């Protein structure tokens, strides 16, 4: 597929909103767009800078933190052929939500949602605590454990790559992120769509 066109980044409080246009070149078997983020202009899109995948031409980078962030997007077809990268777009965050004091345990959800196959689950931890973050199916079966240990206070992002405990791809469907910390349990519904 051709390189996505006219990548544009704009800040929205602590988030960065990205938008772009499809190339129109060999897009008939397009599977996903891959979004990359770097902290230096001219960064090379690779697995170390991979941020997420999107099926639409819009994406929100939720609370990346203070600083200037640089983005590029590629298109990938159903045969896993990845095209050239888009132009680079930059956004500067000067006051991130993550810098504010956190007063309560919160499960902020996941992004993107629906997702395929990777999503980022965000939660706030007011104090250091033993934390457990699990993924459950609608039948109540534990699919994967993402966090099991003591974590520092603050906002945390944990990625789930759509894999079960055995490392196999989980099927499409509805899943629940279950966060347990400081005697509290919070859940959030997510949709894995392939």
List the topology elements.
Layout: E1 5-12, E2 15-21, E3 30-38, E4 50-54, E5 58-61, E6 67-77, E7 89-93, E8 106-111, E9 119-125, E10 129-137, E11 142-151, E12 154-160, E13 173-181, E14 184-192
Antiparallel strand pairs: 1-2, 2-5, 3-4, 3-6, 6-7, 8-9, 9-12, 10-11, 10-13, 13-14
Describe this structure in words.
The protein has 194 residues and is mainly beta. The chain is 0% helix and 55% strand. The chain is built from no helices and 14 strands. It has strands at 5-12, 15-21, 30-38, 50-54, 58-61, 67-77, 89-93, 106-111, 119-125, 129-137, 142-151, 154-160, 173-181, 184-192. The strands form 4 sheets. It has a 4-stranded antiparallel β-sheet, with no helix packed on it. A 4-stranded antiparallel β-sheet has the order 11-10-13-14, with no helix packed on it.
Characterize the biggest β-sheet. 4 strands, antiparallel
Number of helices: 0
> Helix share of residues?
under 10%
Strand content: over 45%
Radius of gyration equals: 17 Å
- Write the H/E string, N to C: EEEEEEEEEEEEEE
Helix-strand category: mainly beta
Low-confidence segments, given as residue ranges, are: none
Terminus-to-terminus distance: 19 Å
**Number of extended strands:** 14
Strand order of the largest sheet: 4-3-6-7
- Which word captures the global form? globular
Mean pLDDT: 88
């Amino acid at each position: 597929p051709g390189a996505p066109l006219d990548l544009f980044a704009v800040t929205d409080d602590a988030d960065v909103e990205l938008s772009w246009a499809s190339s129109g070149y060999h897009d008939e078997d397009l599977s996903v767009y891959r979004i990359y983020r770097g902290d230096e202009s001219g960064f090379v899109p690779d697995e170390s800078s991979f941020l997420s995948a999107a099926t639409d031409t819009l994406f929100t980078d939720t609370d990346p933190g203070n600083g200037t962030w640089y983005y590029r997007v590629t298109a990938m077809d159903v045969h896993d052929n990845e095209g050239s990268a888009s132009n680079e777009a930059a956004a500067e965050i000067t006051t991130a939500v993550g810098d504010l004091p956190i007063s309560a345990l919160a499960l902020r959800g996941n992004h993107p949602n629906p997702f395929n196959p990777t999503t980022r689950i965000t939660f706030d931890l007011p104090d250091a605590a033993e934390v457990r973050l699990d993924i459950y199916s609608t039948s109540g079966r534990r699919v994967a454990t993402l966090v099991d240990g003591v974590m520092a206070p603050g906002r945390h992002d944990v990625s789930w790559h759509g894999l079960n405990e055995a490392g196999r791809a989980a099927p499409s469907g509805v899943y629940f992120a279950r966060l347990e910390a400081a005697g509290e349990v919070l859940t959030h519904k997510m949709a894995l769509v392939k």
